[in-house]
Amino acid sequence: MTVDTITSSKQAIELEDKYGAHNYHPLPVVLAKGEGVHVWDVEGKKYYDFLSAYSAVNQGHCHPKIVGAMNSQAETLTLTSRAFYNDMLGKYEKFASDYFKFDKLLPMNTGAEAVETAIKICRKWAYEKKGVKETDAQIIVCENNFHGRTTTIISFSNDEGARKNFGPYTPGFIKIPYDDTEALENALKQENVAGFLVEPIQGEAGVYTPADDFMKKAKQLCNDNNVLFIADEIQTGIARTGGLLAVCGNCSCENHCERQETYSRPDILILGKALSGGAYPVSAVLADDEIMNVIKPGQHGSTFGGNPVAAAVAMAALQVVQDENLIQNARTLGELFRSEMAKYIETSNIVSLVRGKGLLNAIVINDSEDSSTAWDMCMALKENGLLAKPTHGNIIRFAPPLVMTKEQLLDCVSIITETIKTFEK
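Request: output the structure for the sequence above.
Response:
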């Protein structure tokens, strides 16, 4: 059996269309190489990557320290399953627990798995520690959330594209408006509430950034009602928003998290994406002993979760964030990006708003959600050497790797604004 040699983007797209499930609608560009903030297509055209694999590649494409750690471990030991100990997992668990200041880490592979894990831990804690009657636990979530696409997770989504014809749905969730402290306070008055699961910034919803005090108030309300505050930082965590985590708020930390006054400490922290630097699937749930110890042998797991390669990759990925001051870089360049874009928007008819935090930003197109303007704009950006993707029809998300320089960012701002000009009404 032979493997096709890809000689053109057209060929690669046709192969995917014929042999792959049609569960994605990619921008028509076929990438073959990546380094730092750049990617190249099959034909050799170079682009700025302004999506970073939905923030998985915060450390840049093919970072040599991360790839080196992966290759070295892959040549030594790749997988033991959790039926046996391996000499990497304990090192990683200690490294990450110290890094994020939690007692314990439960390793998984994908973001959706980590969210499911957090839900299971929260429910079990409610039954065994809070005294909620088994099967009655409720978890509060927010409208327009995106936590993954498993059956349980889509059960509390209001994205009909993700939900329709996948029921019956899993019960046990209370949905409230995002960034609404009063709604949260009222929901917490309901019986059997175990946790509040929230994205500190809603990425898929269009980089919707809440009020500065929303996380602090949410954390305090959870504490007051003996409810677990669960932060899904899969997309927002690990330096993306100008803090180690988005729940760090408007901190001034340098190359590590100092837990300043703006920090809202989660009871359960969910990580993924950049935990791997984009090199290998790695996710994790972190919590203190009082919560994590409800999980006993045989009650949760994954064959690949905590494998030696994942452990080596995650430690290298986190070390790069610290060594290269990516927190500070994201904060500085994010402010510059929003400032420069805001200048353009002052006189724009087609772009109405720029918003975000750190290097997780979005522009809102002055058109309806069912229009093609944002998609057409991304197609034009592609032609001009920059890759981005629309979300919610009329919003374009901009999230470059955090290793970007000021000069590169300003070059990208120029590409974006010059492209937008061609769409002005």
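The radius of gyration is 21 Å.
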